[in-house]
Amino acid sequence: MNKQLIAAAAFTAVLGATLASPVFAADKEKCYGIAKAGQNDCKGNNHACAGQGTKDMDKGEFKAVPAGTCQQMGGSLQPGM
Q: Which residues lie below 8 Å from residue 48, measured CB to CB, with a gap of 6+?
């Protein structure tokens, strides 16, 4: 029973870390300030994950976009800029 509990806890920890830290393909980049409310990709100003942004074009929220296109869309590669 103890081994099952430890294994379940370890699996939950790994799964949680994986979901909290999205990994983007090399052809994607985080673009801040372009997401509409509720359309952000993971973690922002005052929340833990995707779809929880509350205002349009918040400079602390990002969307994953094709690499090299962020600034053309009016966004920034750095939060708050």
A: 20
Q: Break the chain into its structural domains and give their ranges.
A: 24-81
pLDDT digits (tens, 9 = 90+) for 8-35: 555 454 444 444 445 667 899 999 999 8
CA angle 70, 76, 77 (to 5 degrees): 85
pTM, 2 dp = 0.63
In angstroms, the CA 71 to CA 32 distance is 9
- Distance CA(52)–CA(27), nearest Å, equals 25
Cβ-contact 57, 35 below 8 angstroms: yes
Q: 3-state SS string over 25-59?
A: CCCEEEEECCCCCCCCECCCCCCCCCCCCCCCCCC
